[in-house]
Amino acid sequence: MAYSDIAITAPGSAEEGEEVSVSALVTNISALDLPFRVKLYAVRDIYEVPAPEELIDSFEGIIEAGHSKPSVGRSSCLLGILPL
Fold first, then answer.
1. Count of CB atoms situated within 10 Å of the CB of 35
2. What angle do CA 32, 73, 41 make, to 5 degrees?
3. Quick check: 3 pLDDT over 50?
4. Is residue 73 part of a domain?
5. Residue 66 and residue 53: Cα distance in Å, rounded?
6. Residue 27 is assigned to a structural domain of this protein
7. What's the DSSP call for residue 52?
8. Is residue 84 a part of any domain in this protein?
9. More confident residue, 33 or 42
10. Is 79 a member of any domain?
11. Residue 12: beta bridge partners?
12. Number of domains into which the chain is organized
């Protein structure tokens, strides 16, 4: 059973060293107020384990039933963002 819906917004591409904005919107789709932990990282490779210094925003707390909480940050693009 799913308790959340996550929407991630980021540019489709960026040049190396360019600062970009990224965001995640976490929505509690359950009928209960629940605790959530969100960590937004900027990593060089989607397959690597994020390092603490790559953390650009975090949130830990209760999201009420049916409500959303944004997590927004800016990061320098280390290797460039490439479209999939």
1. 9
2. 80
3. yes
4. no
5. 32
6. yes
7. G
8. no
9. 33
10. no
11. none
12. 1
Q: Can you tell me which residue has the tokens 């909480």? A: 69
- Residue 44 pLDDT more than 60? yes
Tokens of 2: 């799913």
Three-state DSSP at 54 gives helix
Q: What is the rounded distance in angstroms from the CA atom of residue 60 to the CA atom of residue 42?
A: 18
The model's pTM is 0.71
**Structure confidence at residue 65 as a pLDDT band (50, 70, 90):** very high
Q: How confident is the model at residue 45 (pLDDT cuts 50, 70, 90)?
A: confident
Q: DSSP string covering 11-59, please? A: -S-B-TT-EEEEEEEEEE-SSS-EEEEEEEE--S-TTSPPPGGGEEEEE
Q: What residues make up the domain containing 55? A: 4-10+17-68
| Rounded Cα–Cα distance for residues 73 and 84 (Å) | 21
Tokens 């009420």 — which residue? Answer: 64
Structure tokens that stand for 76 in this block: 């320098």
